[in-house]
């Protein structure tokens, strides 16, 4: 007849069994905490949740420079505000449509009352060269008469930009913080679009090369080159979005109009931080920041000229950092001549009118 194991050995084996089961269960459970970028805010997710949560949780921008990590000041205030929208961005397909690269393409513009007539020309050009593609027109303070006219334009979707959802500084148009938030709102509607200001005029409808460039570079192409980034950026912005100041000083800044083909990578590395900066006044519009450059004689092209480009400054730093300060990766080739910038009423094309479309 078997005597069995001694009592103390039985207890040891039982304890070992419990420990092994605990380790197995813990190892097989998804460890979301290890992913600092893409996290869920609750697990398991409630089946009756009314809206998706914003999945990006990082609030301090960082960059590796010569083996050292430089971390910017916290943008947690902006992250908290962005999470309130509870929306996930729409991402573009991994590959281009072989039959029509422009399938799903949209256009977005915006205006206050004083730039409405210039925007009419931008819309007319787009209607002519890209018929039947939706054009979203954000109202930043139009008159009732202008809204009524806009709602008669073909393929144009009127969008009231609700400033009451945003901090006070976003409501001031001269901080240009509304621009990133307008793009953030568009990414809930479309993954691929041209972002145009009132002076934007298309010259051609064949934009396949722009798509190819966006496919290879992560998703953003800009068009209008200007002064060096450090020359037109308030130094305080670098406290939030650090970078290699020497290389940024050698890299031209590019105008804010853009082709956006949203991908997870460009959203994580560029757009997320652009949106957070826009929601924090000290980042997008530091104290003393002015758009107009004073009359100075800088000693070099990279020296700060005493002026600031607000949303453009932030976007240029982020894109330059992301692309290793290689301008050719995200600047459209000038010789391709996709667009021209006309800061006056041009009337190159006649506006097409249809029924109203209000959103």
UniProtKB/TrEMBL annotation:
Q: Name one Pfam family in it.
A: DUF1647
InterPro entries referenced in this protein's UniProt entry, alphabetically: DUF1647
Q: What is this protein called?
A: Nucleotide-diphospho-sugar transferase domain-containing protein
Source organism of this protein record: Capitella teleta
């Amino acid at each position: 007849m078997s005597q069995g194991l001694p009592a103390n050995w039985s207890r040891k084996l039982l304890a070992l069994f419990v420990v092994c089961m605990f380790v197995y269960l813990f190892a097989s459970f998804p460890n979301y905490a290890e992913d600092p970028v893409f996290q869920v805010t609750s697990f398991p997710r409630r089946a009756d949740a009314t809206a998706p949560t914003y999945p990006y949780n990082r609030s301090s921008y960082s960059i590796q420079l010569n083996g050292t990590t430089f971390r910017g000041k916290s943008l947690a205030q902006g992250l908290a505000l962005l999470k309130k929208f509870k929306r996930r961005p729409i991402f573009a397909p991994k590959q281009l449509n072989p039959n029509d690269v422009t399938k799903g393409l949209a256009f977005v513009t915006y205006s206050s009352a004083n730039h409405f007539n210039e925007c009419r020309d931008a819309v007319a050009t787009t209607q002519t060269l890209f018929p039947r593609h939706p054009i979203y027109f954000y109202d930043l303070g139009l008159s009732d008469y202008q809204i009524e006219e806009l709602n008669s334009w073909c393929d144009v979707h009127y969008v009231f930009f609700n400033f009451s959802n945003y901090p006070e500084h976003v409501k001031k148009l001269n901080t240009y913080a509304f621009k990133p938030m307008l793009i953030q709102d568009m990414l809930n509607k479309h993954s691929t679009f041209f972002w145009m200001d009132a002076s934007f005029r298309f010259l051609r409808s064949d934009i396949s090369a722009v798509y190819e460039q966006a496919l290879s570079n992560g998703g953003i192409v800009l068009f209008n080159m200007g002064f060096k980034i450090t020359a037109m950026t308030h130094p305080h912005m670098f406290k939030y979005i650090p970078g290699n100041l020497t290389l940024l000083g050698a890299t031209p800044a590019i105008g804010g109009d853009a082709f956006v083909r949203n991908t997870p990578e460009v959203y994580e590395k560029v757009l997320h931080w652009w949106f957070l900066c826009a929601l924090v006044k000290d980042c997008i519009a530091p104290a003393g920041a002015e758009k107009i450059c004073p009359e100075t004689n800088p000693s070099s092209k990279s020296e700060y000229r005493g002026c600031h480009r607000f949303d453009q400054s932030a976007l240029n730093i982020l894109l330059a950092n992301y692309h290793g300060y290689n301008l050719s990766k995200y600047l459209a080739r000038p010789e391709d001549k996709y667009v021209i910038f006309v800061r006056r009423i041009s009337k190159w094309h006649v506006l097409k009118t249809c029924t109203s479309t209000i959103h």
